[in-house]
Amino acid sequence: LGRWRLSLDRLLDALENLEEADLKRFKRKLNEFPVKKGYENIPKGRLEKADALDLAELLLSFYAEEYAEEVAIGVLEEINCKRQAEKLASLAGTKISASLPAVRISGRVHFIDRHREELIQRTPIDQVLDCLYGTVLTPEQYEKIRAKETNQEKMRELYYKIMPSWNNYCKDQLYVALKDKNPYLIEDLEGK
């Protein structure tokens, strides 16, 4: 109950500080936000009249503590409420890179999509997969990728089988892992 209460307080803090228009956008995006397998989106009818407290409780009842905060951070990122996303991530102990806003430039094409071919060819992926395990990769996805023999086969599995269902939050997590484990590769690609 203590963790649930702490999570409720963090979610409430993030949601109560949204402008009315942003709260409305948050509810609309939350209804269509791609959630992990095994979870369902909160029905639109339950979101429409929800205030910040109702939303925080709905997030917790649908997604439990840790995933509720992850979903909220992802939705806040999607609606460009970066300050609230970063504050919630900081309070929740989730890593969000300060350089993430630069990830989505060039006509809103994500860095991960923009540099797909080069990342497939040049990424030593095993350490990156370890960073993604349990956050954006399920144990089954992780094992399926690791079973491939070469780095290129592993990256193709990630790009063509798993990433099509990812939103920008998931791609941001891949970017952060790549930047953490392969900083020179990311610097080189960012310079292009």
UniProtKB/TrEMBL annotation:
<dbReference type="InterPro" id="IPR051249">
    <property type="entry name" value="NLRP_Inflammasome"/>
</dbReference>
<feature type="domain" description="CARD">
    <location>
        <begin position="110"/>
        <end position="192"/>
    </location>
</feature>
<dbReference type="InterPro" id="IPR011029">
    <property type="entry name" value="DEATH-like_dom_sf"/>
</dbReference>
<keyword id="KW-0395">Inflammatory response</keyword>
<dbReference type="GO" id="GO:0061702">
    <property type="term" value="C:canonical inflammasome complex"/>
</dbReference>
<dbReference type="InterPro" id="IPR033516">
    <property type="entry name" value="CARD8/ASC/NALP1_CARD"/>
</dbReference>
<dbReference type="Pfam" id="PF00619">
    <property type="entry name" value="CARD"/>
</dbReference>
<protein>
    <submittedName>
        <fullName>PYD and CARD domain containing</fullName>
    </submittedName>
</protein>
<dbReference type="Pfam" id="PF02758">
    <property type="entry name" value="PYRIN"/>
</dbReference>
<dbReference type="InterPro" id="IPR001315">
    <property type="entry name" value="CARD"/>
</dbReference>
<keyword id="KW-0963">Cytoplasm</keyword>
<keyword id="KW-0399">Innate immunity</keyword>
<dbReference type="GO" id="GO:0042981">
    <property type="term" value="P:regulation of apoptotic process"/>
</dbReference>
<dbReference type="GO" id="GO:0006954">
    <property type="term" value="P:inflammatory response"/>
</dbReference>
<dbReference type="InterPro" id="IPR004020">
    <property type="entry name" value="DAPIN"/>
</dbReference>
<keyword id="KW-0391">Immunity</keyword>
<feature type="domain" description="Pyrin">
    <location>
        <begin position="1"/>
        <end position="94"/>
    </location>
</feature>
<dbReference type="GO" id="GO:0045087">
    <property type="term" value="P:innate immune response"/>
</dbReference>
<keyword id="KW-1271">Inflammasome</keyword>
